[in-house]
Amino acid sequence: MLDTQLSSSLSYKLFRADQVRENEGKAAAESGCDLATLMQRAGDAVYLQCQERFANSDVYLVLVGQGNNAGDGYITALNAKQAGKQVIVCAVEPERTLEGDAGDAQAKWLKAGGKIKAFEKGDIDKADIIIDALLGTGITTTIRNEFADIIDAVNSAVTPVVSIDVPSGLDANTGQSMGRCVQANVTVTFVGIKPGLVTGAGKQSCGQLVYADLGVGKAFQSLAKASATLLNIDHFKGMGPRDVHSHKGTYGRLLCIGGNKGTAGAIRLASEAALRSGAGMVRVYTHQSSVIQVSAGRPELMVTDSDLDAALEWASCVVIGPGLGLDSWAEEAFAITMKHCQAHNKPVVIDADALNLLCKQSTAYTINESILTPHAGEAARLLGVSVDDVEGDRFNYARQCSQRYHAVCVLKGAGTLIDNEKKTWVCRHGNPALATAGSGDVLSGILGALMAQGLAVDIAAKYGVVLHAKAGDDIAQQYGQRGMIASDLFDAVRVLINQ
């Protein structure tokens, strides 16, 4: 979840850490202040969040490193001390005098009677709240042992943690842990939201992400080009009212292909999700052994196990992959489908086992109107890299995937990414309840239904991902995260798509 203190579009833009460092000074100057003022405002913003979220905290433990992040920490400590809080400041090198604006902040702390000591594990036991100002956005290598030891102690405690700008040890651009990473309850980030804070492991590490532009947001936005954009449900107007004179054919003919022997449930989830997302007609091509299981209890689905060519001719859009398998039946269905969609430039969503078949024939097919929906493991196979590679740099590999296959890539996971070779979007919604069997099949059905109803591939990918994730949030809020199953999403998606 993201809180913002700025109502402009800047609060939905993502900027690399180097962009912030290179442009914040000029943005400050254009806004009538300097970097020292920004540091003061940063410390003020952090203390304000501490007061609002952890109002009963009387003992503050502030952990500082050696850069500007430490300066923000000293200002936060000074604010807490002036408010009558008991403040313990621990530095990695207590005797070291910092330079520049951070040195000035350190001097202010000392002048006010504050003390700086070496960290001891017992300090955590005394604290009601921990302020993490150890490492900022400049970290690019594995962190040193003296920082790692402190981070381990912080993460093993139950004391709430507020990280300044970025959880210490996290690469602000990729969201990758640099050996160790603070697991914060709240992260207050400044000037521009960094990409690594909103996806993958970085999203987990940040906890509640709070954005403060420090009064230079507009100037900064004019100087730096966003690297990606955050999406939420409010960015979409929904599908709008239907025309009185419309009929079922108006809203597309979607063909869902999959459901090999023993995996009928996957294609059933995808096809029913498509119906609930507004597709006019949905046909399923499935394995002979799966026909009854797919059609039972859902007569609105047209189910067949023969004449795939005719089904493809009928369809205006295709979803292939849920429960498809990797055997000869799957390979034949995949080859026929891909050749047809390529020859007719027919929109197609490629998911699950279809992705595993695609990676074996990466140069054989190019379909302009296609969406790939890999999780990290599938993306790794598509690109010939490891899962750790993908999770360590999700933005990079989402772009590589979209470029290699000339498709819109939906890289699933915490902070799902949507990349169309030129631009990247990040879904703000979603929670761990969506990590359940069949959730991805439902997403594929939603995406196919939106394209079948005429949405352009980019818009369908963005809107579909957001619908799916927001439906998961709504259900989790109502019933809790544990115990949610994929079909629970149907009604929630239906509600959202009609708003």
From TrEMBL:
PROSITE patterns: YJEF_C_2 (PS01050), YJEF_C_3 (PS51383), YJEF_N (PS51385). Its cofactor is K(+); Mg(2+). This is Bifunctional NAD(P)H-hydrate repair enzyme. The gene is nnrD. In the C-terminal section; belongs to the NnrD/CARKD family. InterPro entries: Carbohydrate_kinase_pred_CS (IPR017953), CARKD (IPR000631), Nnr (IPR030677), Ribokinase-like (IPR029056), YjeF_N_dom (IPR004443), YjeF_N_dom_sf (IPR036652). It comes from Alteromonas australica. NCBIfam families: yjeF_cterm, yjeF_nterm. HAMAP family: NADHX_dehydratase, NADHX_epimerase. One of its GO terms (molecular function) is NAD(P)HX epimerase activity. Residues 20-222 form the YjeF N-terminal domain. (6S)-NADPHX binds at residues 136-142, 165, 266, 323, 375, 441. Its EC number is 4.2.1.136, 5.1.99.6. It comes from the Bacteria.
